[in-house]
Amino acid sequence: MLVLFLLFLVVPAVSAKDPRCPKNFTFVKRTLTFKNNFTKGWCLGIFNGTDVGNRDRARSVCLYHNASLSNPENSHELEIVSDVIRARNISLPIALDGQLSPRCKALIFRGEQSQQYFDQRTEEGDCNINNHLFVYDDINTDTLFIRSKLGTSAGTNGGYSSQEDGVKFRFTRDCNALTDAYYYFSNGTHFYAVDGRTELLGCFGEKDKQNKHEYSSVLCGRFPL
Ligand SMILES: *[C@@H]1O[C@H](CO)[C@@H](O)[C@H](O)[C@H]1NC(C)=O
Ligand SMILES: *[C@@H]1O[C@H](CO)[C@@H](O)[C@H](O)[C@H]1NC(C)=O
Ligand SMILES: *[C@@H]1O[C@H](CO)[C@@H](O)[C@H](O)[C@H]1NC(C)=O
Ligand SMILES: *[C@@H]1O[C@H](CO)[C@@H](O)[C@H](O)[C@H]1NC(C)=O
Ligand SMILES: *[C@@H]1O[C@H](CO)[C@@H](O)[C@H](O)[C@H]1NC(C)=O
Ligand SMILES: *[C@@H]1O[C@H](CO)[C@@H](O)[C@H](O)[C@H]1NC(C)=O
């Protein structure tokens, strides 16, 4: 009798009505808002692939899993992603959704040329970090949280090479990635943690000579089954 009573209490909590995710995706419950396309549930999964520093390869890996590039929407979702990273010992960086908009990239280049360096926090208009500095594939994730995790300003990753024709070929890191972090203590020791810090890395993968980082996985998201 007691057992039956307990079952009665426990079963509804894990009822078959819970949405399900495909294998290797984890379900996250979301608060419906305009900014996440009123998404009440989402599946996040980290997938391994060759040369996913190349944005189109990362995109293709997610597509293969019937998903899109994605992001954690809040610290709870980041914790879930971090648990998967630790459990599977996945090496960082991990490709995330989000890429500098071409128009804002042009603005960053113009800033470098005139030495009026672009600052994403004070930039007026569309290219402010709070507006449309980035373009995203996934419209079912509110990107406010992940934008707040960007470690360095988008205006500080640029460079150029001088070409024979006299044109300075400009480039900047433009793809969002989850990177590792070290916390330093005053006694000189440090510990390593996945704290959700993101950085911009090149979008061209192995072909990008500036990209010293080797990605082997990408975060994908999709609707539950
Ligand atoms: C799912 O995860 C398991 C365990 O990490 C792995 O062996 C398997 O290859 C993954 N499947 C896919 C489709 O990525
Ligand atoms: C937005 O949400 C609706 C309702 O869940 C869904 O049918 C639609 O596919 C979503 N849009 C995109 C681009 O995923
Ligand atoms: C993606 O969806 C298609 C069509 O529903 C299905 O045949 C295929 O197995 C799915 N791929 C994966 C990796 O789940
Ligand atoms: C985790 O991965 C790192 C590098 O990818 C490797 O050196 C280490 O041995 C791995 N640890 C475990 C427990 O597999
Ligand atoms: C998959 O991930 C593991 C651990 O991060 C890595 O050692 C391996 O090379 C990756 N495989 C591919 C195909 O990238
Ligand atoms: C250094 O400080 C940290 C934080 O206070 C502590 O956890 C760690 O044990 C210390 N390491 C040494 C070698 O004293």
Would you mind describing this structure in some detail?
With 225 residues, the protein is α+β, with helices and mostly antiparallel strands. It has one domain (25-31, 39-157, 171-222): Mannose-Binding Protein A, Chain A (Roll), CATH 3.10.100. The chain has helices at residues 2-10, 55-64, 75-88, 102-114, 144-148, and strands spanning 26-29, 41-48, 68-69, 94-100, 134-135, 158-162, 168-172, 175-178, 181-184, 190-193, 198-201, 217-222. Bound molecules: 2-acetamido-2-deoxy-beta-D-glucopyranose (6 copies).
Please outline what is shown here.
Helices cover 23% and strands 24% of the residues.
- Spell out the CATH superfamily: Mannose-Binding Protein A, subunit A
CATH architectural type: Roll
* Largest beta-sheet details: 8 strands, mixed
Kindly provide the radius of gyration, computed on alpha-carbon positions and rounded to a whole number of angstroms.
Answer: 20 Å
Structural class: alpha+beta
| Attached small molecules | 2-acetamido-2-deoxy-beta-D-glucopyranose
Shape: globular
What string, H for helix and E for strand, traces the elements in order? HEEHEHEHEHEEEEEEE
* Straight-line N-to-C gap: 36 Å
| Overall helicity | 10-25%
Provide the CATH top-level class: Alpha Beta
Strand content: 15-25%
Helix count from the secondary structure assignment? 5
Give the domain tally.
1
Q: CATH topology, what is it called?
A: Mannose-Binding Protein A, Chain A
Instruction: Outline the low-pLDDT stretches.
Output: 1-17
Count all strands and give the number.
12
Q: Average pLDDT across residues? A: 84
